[in-house]
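haha ok so turns out i had the wrong file open the whole time. this is the CORRECT one, sorry everyone. sequence first:
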Amino acid sequence: MSVRLAVPVALLFALSSLSAAAEPRRYTLDPEHLAIAFKSRHLGFSDVLGQFLKASGSFLYDEEARTVEDIRVEIQASSVFTNHDARDGHVRSADFLDANAHPVIRFVGTRAEPTGERTGKVHGDLTVRGVTRPVVLDVTLIGAGRYPFGDKQQVVGVSATTVLKRSEFGMTYALEGGMVGDEVPVILEFEAIRQEG
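then structure:
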């Protein structure tokens, strides 16, 4: 489903510096400049840091109409990495991500709202373990323009954060006694490249 979001240029990605286009252009997440990280409280003593190493995504942006649509990100659940093999295997298991049964974590944007010249909120639906819940990402534009070297692609750089409750996605393992925290802060850092042609 494609969702059209009317947003000011100054909001998501602030692409006013890019040349006008007559129709939406596809931007894809650059896998070489993409990080999806999280942390989880362990036994009340520390926060375990982790990442997902494989993800892809894209959106359509119409510079003339100032709209964003078709915002999608897909994360490979089995690509979770916490720098500990046994723990990574446990996080992939049915106690947590259930990656064999539900290999893809998916986010689909539904609407956006500005909060400042370079900040905004993106509302969307997040599906984990086959459970879909609404989430809100706090988004900050880092920069937009052409790379100063190489093929000089048109790029935007964005930082986004949110906090999830894993119990809302059916991950109730070790909640009792706070052995593993329920709230999971998430950060998404990426550059997206405009597709030509």
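The radius of gyration is 18 Å.
again sry for the mixup
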